[in-house]
Write a structure and sequence with these properties.
The chain is an alpha+beta fold and 152 residues long. The protein contains four helices and seven strands; from the N terminus they run E-H-H-E-H-E-E-E-E-E-H. The longest helix has 23 residues, at 128-150. It holds the Pfam family DUF7053. InterPro entries: DUF7053.
Length: 152
């Protein structure tokens, strides 16, 4: 059963909504921000036929990313879909030493009063042990990643 969590971070009034969107849509910055132990990455393809976003007419880019994680070095496929005016969707498909995993993240820049927020909804689908570990890591490390996207 998938595990879900939501991380919400207020956007400082000194940072524009467009600046946060531009930071999210910068795929190099996105990868370097969300993979702090990045070893390397390479662009694999654009608009893969298997992508669900292709049906929506949105372009997506696929990368192969190698990163160091608490469980060791892992290589995974990352599909990024820019959502104009909204944010970005990320799909991670990988195999860790403990089994396969799928992580879907939806970053959205939400307007609100008194200030806007950056919201990330994460769904993790792996074995029960990995779900718990990944969710804990997301809840611990992603607020800091949000701050990096806002440091425009």
């Amino acid at each position: 059963m998938p595990s879900e969590t939501t991380i919400t971070t207020p956007i400082p009034t000194s940072v524009s909504r467009d600046a946060v969107l531009a930071a999210l849509h910068d795929h190099d910055r996105y990868i370097r921000t969300t993979c702090p132990q990045l070893i390397n990455y390479a662009h694999v393809s654009s608009n893969p036929a298997t992508s669900t976003t292709r049906e929506e007419g949105l372009p997506c880019e696929v990368y192969e990313v190698t990163d160091k994680r608490p469980i060791g070095q892992t290589t995974f496929r990352l599909t990024l879909t820019d959502r104009p005016g909204e944010g970005i969707d990320a799909l991670i498909e990988g195999k860790a030493p403990t089994g396969s995993m799928t992580i879907r993240s939806r970053f959205r820049v939400l307007e609100g009063a008194p200030q806007s927020t950056l919201e990330e909804r994460v769904a993790i689908d792996s074995n029960m042990l990995m779900n718990k570990m990944i969710k804990g890591n997301v809840e611990k490390s992603h607020p800091e990643q949000h701050q990096k996207f806002m440091a425009c």
